[in-house]
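Box 4.2: Ligand-aware structure prediction
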Amino acid sequence: MALKNQYLIDLMETVKKRNQGEPEFIQAVTEVLETLEPVVEKRPDLVEAGVLDRIVEPERQIMFRVPWVDDNGKTQVNRGFRVQFNSAIGPYKGGIRLHPSVYLGIIKFLGFEQVFKNSLTTLPMGGGKGGSDFDPKGKSDGEIMRFCQSFMTELCRHIGADLDVPAGDIGTGAREIGYMFGQYKRIRNEFTGVLTGKGLTYGGSLARTQATGYGLCYFTNEMLQANGKSFEGKTVVISGSGNVAIYATEKAQSYGAKVVALSDSNGYIYDADGIKLDIVKEIKEVRRGRIKEYLDAVPTATYTEGCSGIWTIPCDIALPCATQNEIDGESAAILVKNGCWCVSEGANMPSTPEAIETYLSNGLLYGPAKAANAGGVATSGLEMSQNSERLSWSFEEVDAKLHGIMKSIFKACDDAAKEYGMEGNYMAGANIAGFLKVAEAMKAQGCV
Ligand code: NDP
């Protein structure tokens, strides 16, 4: 889909010039601007107020040195990032990614997406994202702790419970959040809800661990039902085997689906009888092992090297839950050829523009990441509420609120798509609904 509106064409040119060498960020902005064409036509007041010119530029970008000492006594240096993208509707909120592929462009694309996602949750949260090119794989607990402490030593100057509240993402789970929280508390001498995804003994929320994966299935279930379909008896392929993939598998199975495959960055497993999730949890959550080890417990399953081959497995529903651009045009075409009729995104921007084009032109039900994976940050918002009132809610209470939020997100996407003449295009609906709330707030607050 090419831009037709001259104002948007010029804006996109500026974005490309200003952000050279950051293809993921340019990809994320392009996708949003393309779907905002009808909004620009209908709402010249927002163009007039410079909302779009401002929304594509982060409010603040922080880059810093993260020195730490490894187990051999050698100094290691990583680079840390926090991009505070937009605070029009609330404090900056978004996770911290620890992965060797992290650079400014990745954090910016994630922060940009986060602005719209957080808006869709209906909670008062602005958008931000952070991370480092540190690779947690193969590091000892001591090394992880020293890295996290050094990272927070600088980051603590820039965050706060009413300012910017980071959370987990790839490579940042409960262990890393714990080390970061401890260091923040030590330096600032205050116990506040400055991070979410905390342990249950010190302010974490029940159901936060499950939230992104469960939320993905709640959203997908709404989309299926609205189109006369369901998870019951369907074959599902899920990529990744981390936090999002594990709890998406759990919820899809509870809806009666058969999940037949999971992966990591080395390869994928296929179990025609359905993945035994207790075995996966033991490997990934207890031992921090590799997905290949599933075969030790289930010799009838198969393991294949290379992660993109997972999309050649025939399925009804595909839930990409690993990383950005993991489904390209070619993989999307294979999915369609093999009968897949629904793709719903747990990971952030897992589909390339060519893949999305393939879904839409073949009439697939497509749940875009901004909406479909918003359950994690929504539950982080619920953790912030519990911290503020110094209470903790039961698992059932949080889960019911999460379920309600995911239903309302689907409805907002569906309604916006219909209102702007693109019925069934939930990507356009998500971008428009997410944008409008932030845009109104930015306009109301003047040129800041
Ligand atoms: P985890 O670190 O728990 O798991 C990530 C999984 O994806 C692992 O199996 C990992 O394999 C795989 N993976 C990571 N990078 C790559 C890569 N370059 N190629 C192939 N596989 C890869 O992360 P999460 O489950 O938390 O996050 C998964 C996705 O969901 C990300 O896109 C994240 O931004 C998104 N997300 C997460 C939320 C959350 O609450 N956690 C909220 C909203 C979105 P390996 O172990 O080999 O690296």
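In the box above, the bound molecule is NDP. The pocket of NDP is lined by residues 168-171, 212, 240-245, 264-266, 307, 321-323, 346-348, 373, 376 (CB under 6 Å).
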